[in-house]
Design a protein that fits this description.
Oligomer: single chain
Strand order of the largest sheet: 2-1-3
Distance between the termini: 37 Å
Shape: globular
Order of helices and strands: EHEHE
Strand content: 15-25%
Number of helices: 2
């Protein structure tokens, strides 16, 4: 297994790196999950709209979900369920 080198955001100097090759998402599902405490504020949807705009050119299909952070099943359970049918998930968490 290849070891990843992480970048310290506080470092004074950075080594330039080449970009990773784009992932092929054509026809695959990306789940967009709003898990913000205050969904009425629209922050989660704004973040997810940006992610969708960035991933749409790769040919992904999108599925929207709302997962309240303080109710329902633990994240480990629903993340495992999503991993069975989706190529990726984008989760907006905060507040």
């Amino acid at each position: 297994m290849e070891e990843e080198e992480l970048v310290d955001p506080r470092a004074r100097h950075f080594q330039r790196r080449s970009l990773a090759p784009p992932r092929v998402l054509a026809g695959q599902t990306v789940v967009l999950i709003d898990s913000m405490l205050n969904p009425a504020a629209g922050w989660g949807q704004a973040l997810l709209a940006g992610a969708q705009a960035a991933l749409a050119p790769l040919g992904a299909r999108f599925q929207d979900e709302r997962r309240p952070p303080l109710a329902g099943s633990p994240a480990a359970e629903w993340a495992e369920q999503i991993a069975r049918h989706a190529a990726a998930a984008v989760i907006a968490v905060g507040d």
